[in-house]
Automatic annotation (TrEMBL):
<protein>
    <recommendedName>
        <fullName>DUF5641 domain-containing protein</fullName>
    </recommendedName>
</protein>
<feature type="domain" description="DUF5641">
    <location>
        <begin position="15"/>
        <end position="83"/>
    </location>
</feature>
<dbReference type="InterPro" id="IPR040676">
    <property type="entry name" value="DUF5641"/>
</dbReference>
<dbReference type="Pfam" id="PF18701">
    <property type="entry name" value="DUF5641"/>
</dbReference>
Length: 96
């Protein structure tokens, strides 16, 4: 019996789940994002702009208000895909 307990404890150590300790990105007001929709393919996801963010009691922001062409919606960060954006102010090769 003690051998079985030892085997269970040692094998459970191999399968420990780890939590995220750091964030891989941050959303700021004014950023362009795609609103992920599980029912649609990525090429037809809605485009929106972050209006404001809502920090939780622990100080980590997990929800944002997004302005889309159909109105404002609240979405969790796990359903948002930030678009890469390069600031073009002051560049001479941009003709807008």
């Amino acid at each position: 019996m003690p051998f079985e307990v030892h085997v269970i404890i040692s094998t459970s150590m191999f399968f420990q789940k780890t939590k995220w300790s750091t964030s891989s990105g941050q959303l700021n007001e004014g950023m362009l994002v795609l609103l992920r929709d599980k029912a649609l393919p990525p090429l037809v996801w809605a485009l929106g702009r972050v209006v404001r963010t809502f920090p939780g009691p622990d100080g980590v922001t997990r929800v944002a208000e997004i302005k889309t062409r159909r109105g404002n919606v609240l979405r969790g960060f796990n359903n948002l895909c930030p678009l890469p954006f390069e600031d073009v102010k002051g560049r001479e090769d941009v003709h807008a």
